[in-house]
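Internal tracking record. Fields below are filled automatically when a chain is submitted to the structure queue. Please do not edit lines marked as system-generated. If the sequence contains nonstandard residues, flag them in the REMARKS field before resubmitting.
Queue: standard
Priority: normal
Entity type: single polypeptide chain
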Amino acid sequence: MSQPASEPMPELIDIGANLTHDSFDPDRDAVIGRAQAVGVGRMIVTGATCSGSEQAVQFAAERPGELYATAGVHPHHASEYDADTHTLLLQLASTPLVVAVGECGLDYFRNFSPPDAQKKAFAAQLAIGVDVQKPVFLHQRDAHDDFVAMLGEQIDNLTGGVAHCFTGGTKEMNEYLEMGLYIGITGWVCDERRGHDLQEAVPHLPLDRLLLETDAPYLMPRDLPKKLSGRRNEPCVLPHVLETVARLMGRDIAEVASAATRNTERLFNL
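SYSTEM-GENERATED OUTPUT FOLLOWS
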């Protein structure tokens, strides 16, 4: 007697894939194909520099309905932010292919750009988010207090945002949730060395605030049963992140997948 067919797994959306990274230049189409083959039907391509944002928009134009773009300047590159940068980002963010402003925020871990430059660039991009009424794609590392203070000044004027690649604990997560942010979970949650605080926080994350991402080519999950070649993370790994999150939440995988996709469509107006 044949077994009844199982319910199809809901489509996943990777909200943070750095597909403009040069490591993808030789096989970008194959990378996208591998992701779609395992149910990651759509991806949001992260813009972290002016040129990267332009390229992300180009990729989205070439694959409508499959790829979307963000437009922004990562805090590492904040020193490069000037009037021309602002004009370009505002122009890009006004196009339908761009679904969020960023990656923007503060990163004091390495301070590749001075904190004052980071704050100016962050404030400018928050203003763009207000101008175009699109959500912000946020980065924060070792700068929580300044980040919350600056975001708090504009949060009521914004149409939402996501704490991209969240790696903190329950206290930080709750502060972001209180501000109305969504929480982006990556393969960091699979890391037995560094992911302990995040693993403790995830069970307390409301299902309607969860987003899933790989941050490829970075943050390959350390517990992958089969490592990817070249130590390069790919969007096809997203189902593994999903399984870990579902286990930590004590929920069915399909339920978590459906919620994450629904939340992504809601935030980014897909």
